Amino acid sequence: MQLELEMIARRLEIKYPGTNFDVGVKPVPLQEILGGGLTSNLLGVSGAAFVLLIFAWANFASLFSMGAKRELRASGPAFDAGGMNNWALVAAGCGAIGGAIVTAFCLFLLRQLGPGRVIRLNDVRFDGITVGFVALAALIAYLTTIVVSRRAVRQDVKTDFEITATVIAGEPDATKTGFEITRSVVAGVQVAVAFAAVGAAVFTAKGFAQYASISPGFPTANLVTMQVVAPPAKYAEPAKRLSIVDVLFQKIRQIPGVEVVGGNSELVLSGQSNDVLFLIEGRSPVAPGGRPSYVGQRLVTQDYFKVMSIPLIKGRQFDPGDAGKPNVVLINDVLAREYFFLDEPLGKQIVIDLGEKWTGEIVGVVGSVRHLTLGTPPSRELYLSNVQRPTGGLNLIVKTRPGTDVAALKAAITAQVKSVDPEIPVAQFRTMDSVVEDSLAQPRLFATIVEVAAAVAVLMSVLALFALAGSIAADGGDGQPETLQFTLLRGAIPSAAGLALGFGMWRWAVGSLPSVTADVDKGGAASALITLAVMAVLGTGALFLGGQAGAPRRN
After folding, report:
1. Which of 61, 176, 258, 388 lies at a CB distance of 3.0 to 4.6 Å from 145, suitable for a disulfide?
2. Considering only CA atoms, which of 524, 455, 509, 459 is closest in space to residue 200?
3. For residue 177, how many other CB atoms are within 10 A of its CB?
């Protein structure tokens, strides 16, 4: 397919060198277009989840290993290794069931509370594959526990009912040392990962807060929007489309509480866009970089700029008298700056590709809005008048008086539209504030996932240090439990090493995340120091409690 498309592109370049110079064609799967930049984020989240799962397996095994050695010290020959294995199996099963329940509940909450802008959320299912993965995770946790426990406690089966056990302390020192180093390294790595994850969460929270505070370029208060589409077959003629829109606007203006009514073809912050090729008459058809120039084309009604409070910078706005006259266009200040920096845009002719060559005179320059997302800077836009290119499908935007009942307004607008033509649907009725909130759904979800992952990583690191201290206390020295002070000292070494490594990973972690705003402080020295102090306190507490829990019971 790629070869055929390239051949078509080359033919177009030969036939239309002005607008098709050096233009390539590349087929892109629809899934990639819908997913956008989410693929890399999802891969990162999946990788982080897998790392946390490995940590969970290690901690699960370490905790049972600690318990096994503690019971062995206390029970001696009466130690029931089979019972410990059974408990491990029960715990792994309960953990899997609990995880499945939490997952199903979180998915339910997302569907109930999550905006519709969360891509394909309704397609997510808790199916057989999910159940199988949970069961596999539980099985691996159980097997890991058995292997690690047998490394900690070697069992010699005398008969079917008699089990004796010996502690690894009785084995060569090299084996014990290697085992201690391994569990210490695992605990230290978990501390480092947790520290870096907290850094990523802090940065993400700051970034989202700044992202959500960005002004879209217009006030959203007291604005409601909806879609109306006149049946194309019934309103095929341009005059009929223009007439039905005028009648609808007149009816809606009569509703109490309504101040201004406007409409456009592509609603801001809704994912709707329409980019077209354009050129300024008398200039090169390509941009300075040698590529064709594109602009966001919007079809609007006369009062659109008034209802959106978009200022007129120079020239004039659209007028009902433009109907039947030469085409006119308005451009935003971004387009004016980029293409008319040292020139006057008013009066210039602009040519755009609307399936056919369409030329209009620039009669005004208006302010810019963030059309695609809050994080996307305003881009080039031009506006066409509905009276010159009538359409029966518009996003209506209604400005209301403060305190207007939105539910009552929806019913009144629907009734007025149906009174004009019962076949015209009124869809997607919502406030402009909710449009902005919906546009925040994806970054909010990403920020929440990062923050939850950081919290889980911290919990894993605390459990790792708890199990490490408990194992150190249960090992004992020459058959005696080590003192609590010595346990804290030995456990503090991997903890401190992990914090040092995590401090170094802080900048790497936050630097690898997508920045939604350019001015987010990625360094976060104060945040790093606060996190360091909190992690140190949590680690010390985990070591203290683990040392007490791992000390053998004295009968």
Report:
1. 61
2. 509
3. 10
332: how many CB neighbours lie within 10 A of its CB? 25
Mean pLDDT by 10 residues, the chain (555 residues): 65 61 59 56 72 77 70 59 69 80 78 60 73 82 72 45 40 52 83 86 85 91 93 89 92 94 91 84 61 84 94 93 92 92 90 86 95 89 93 92 93 93 92 90 83 88 85 60 70 86 74 52 68 87 83 58
What distances in angstroms separate CA 550 from CA 19, 164, 167, 486, 501, one per listed residue? Answer: 76, 21, 14, 13, 27
Q: Is residue 392 assigned to a domain?
A: yes
Q: Contact 469/543 with Cβ under 8 angstroms?
A: yes
| C-alpha–C-alpha distance, residues 220 and 439, integer Å | 13
**DSSP assignment letter at 256:** T
Among 398, 423, 448, which residue terminates a domain? 423
- The residue segments making up the domain with residue 197 are 47-213+440-518+528-548
Looking at the fold, whether 122 and 199 belong to one and the same domain comes out as yes
- Nearest in space to 353 (alpha carbons), one of 33, 12, 5, 29: 12
Question: Do 178 and 255 lie in a common domain?
Answer: no
Instruction: Write down the pLDDT at residue 158.
Output: 36
Is the full-model pTM beyond 0.90?
no
| H or E element that contains 329 | strand 328-332
- Domain count along the chain: 2
Integer Cα distance of 311 and 367 in angstroms? 5
SS (H, E, C) 380-409: CEEEEECCCCCCCEEEEEEEECCCCCHHHH
- With CA atoms as reference, report the closest residue to 203 among 510, 458, 531, 446: 510
Q: How far apart are CA 297 and CA 383, in angstroms?
A: 6
Determine the Cα–Cα distance for residues 291 and 285; give it in Å rounded to an integer.
9
The reply to whether 237 and 385 lie within a common domain is: yes
Long-range CB contacts (within 8 A, 24+) of 514-517: 514/37, 514/41, 515/207, 516/207, 516/208, 516/210, 516/211, 516/375, 516/443, 517/207, 517/210, 517/211, 517/214, 517/375
Residue type, 357: K
Each residue's pLDDT tens digit, 131-160:
888 888 888 877 777 776 666 555 333 333
Q: Are residues 400 and 499 in the same domain?
A: no
- How many of the other CB atoms lie within 10 Å of CB of 417? 20
**Contact 489/88 with Cβ under 8 angstroms?**
no
Asked, for residue 25, whether it belongs to a domain, the answer is no
Report the alpha-carbon distance of residue 260 to residue 401 in Å, rounded: 10
Q: Encoding tokens for residue 172?
A: 């060569």
DSSP state of 78: G
407, 475: one domain: no
> Would 489 be classed as within a structural domain?
yes
Is 38 within a domain? no
Here the tokens at position 370 are: 């963030």
Give CA–CA dist 492/400, Å, rounded. Answer: 63
CB atoms within 10 A of CB 262: 24
Alpha helices in 161-307 (DSSP H): 173-212, 238-253, 304-307
- How many C-beta atoms surround the C-beta of residue 348 within 10 A? 18
